[in-house]
Amino acid sequence: MTRVDVVVVGLGLTGSAAAWALSRRGRSVVAFEAFQPDHRRGSSHGRSRIFRRAYTDRLYVELTGRAGELWRLLERESGESLLHRTGGLDHGAGGEPEAMAALLADAGVPAELIPPDEAARRWPGMSFEGPVLFHPEAGVIDPERAMAAMTRLATSAGARISYGTWVDALEPQSDGGVLVRTGSGSLHARTVVVAAGPWTEPLLSGLVKLPRLTVTQQQVFFFRPHESAVWPTFIREDDDAVYGLPEGPLLKVAEHGRGRVTTAEDRDGVVDPASRERVMSFVRRWLPGVDPAPCDELTCLYTSTDGEDFILDRQGPIVVCSPCSGHGAKFTPLVGEIAADLADGHPPIHERFTLAAHERPSGRDRRANS
Questions:
Q1: Residue 255: which H helix or E strand, with range?
Q2: Can you tell me the distance from the alpha carbon of 12 to that of 67, in angstroms, rounded to the nearest whole number?
C-alpha cells in the first residue's frame, strides 16, 4: 500500500495552502479535491476577497500582519500578483472604527480616523456617517489565482494533486496513521489535514468531536460604478454588516452572515431576493456613485463557528482546519503554515483555535470580519 507523510483533503484556499507549506518542508504529500479546479460548490471560488488589518480583536490584527508577509512570499515564489493594495474603509457604529484605530495604532499599523465629510471628499462615490477608519494596507486577494499558484508550487516540490476524487472515509490505524479511502483506491498517511469546508462535519462524523459548524448559503452582487475610479474595500456595520470590494471594473457588495442555513449537498444556488433588495437599498443609500441595479450575482458557502473563531487543531492523526466564518481568506498562506506545523506535531498556534476552546462559550460578539 502507498504510504505518505500527509494527505490533504480539500483543495480550496486552505487545502492548497497546506499542500504548498508541507511540500515546501519536504514532506510527501497527496492532496485530494472532490471537484475540478475553479468549481463553485464551496467557499473559495471567484476572483476577489478582502485583505484587511482592521479588527476589534488584537489576536487577528497580529495574525493579519504575519499573513501579509506570507502573501508576499507566495507572490515572489510564484511570480504572480495576488494581493492588490487598495486601502480599506470601516464605518458605522457597530463596527467600532475608533476601537479598531486604537488597536492598529498599538500594533504599528498605519491608519487614520477621518471625519465623514472629508471621507466623502476623498471617495466621492460613497456616503458616510460618523468617523471613518482608513488603513492603506487593505486590499483585494484573487483566490482562484492564489489556489492555482499554490498547487503549482506544491506539485513542483513533489506533491501529488488529484482532482475529481472523493475521500469516502478516514480510518485511524493501530500504528497511529490513517487509512484514506477514495473511489480510486486507498493509501496510508501518517497525518491527514482536513480542509473540506462545508464537507468537514460529514467527513469527520464519529472521528472528531466537532463544535457546531453552521453552513449558510451567502449571495454576492456586482454593481457597475457610474465612473471609473479606484475603489477601496469597505465594511459598514450597524445592526447588520455589508461589505464591498472592487473586482475588475465592477464593485462586489454583499451582506455578511445573513445567509440561509443549508448543507454542502443541499444548497440550491438560488439567490435570496430579500438579500438582493437589502443590498440594492444599501447601494442607493451609501454608494451614490454606483448604479443600484446589480449586473451579476452568485452564491457561495460560509462554514461558521458560533463565535467566528477558526478551528486549527489536531486530534490524533487528524488535523482539522476550518478557518472560515466568512473571514478566513485573508489568512490563507498563514493557515497553510499552521496546518503544516500541526501535521509536524507542533502545538496549536493559539488556545482559542482549539477544539476544546470551541466547546465553551467565548462571550465574544460576532463581528463583520470579512
A1: strand 250-255
A2: 17
CA gap 169, 155 in Å, rounded: 24
Host H or E run for residue 312: strand 311-315
- Residue closest to 35 by CA, chosen among 17, 18, 11: 11
Close Cβ partners of 181 (under 8 Å, ≥ 6 residues apart): 167, 168, 169, 170, 171
pTM, entire model = 0.95
Q: Which pLDDT band holds residue 324 (cuts at 50, 70, 90)?
A: confident
Are 325 and 179 spatial neighbours (Cβ–Cβ below 8 Å)? Answer: no
Secondary structure class of 354 (helix, strand, coil)? coil
The C-alpha atoms of residue 196 and residue 365 are separated, in whole angstroms, by 26
3-state helix, strand, coil in the chain (%, to 5): 30, 30, 40
Tens digits of residue pLDDT in 214-268? 999 999 999 999 988 889 999 999 988 999 999 999 999 999 988 999 999 999 9
* Distance between CA atoms of residues 92 and 130, nearest Å: 7
The answer for residues whose C-beta is within 8 angstroms of residue 118's C-beta and 6 or more apart is: none
C-alpha cell at 330: 485573508
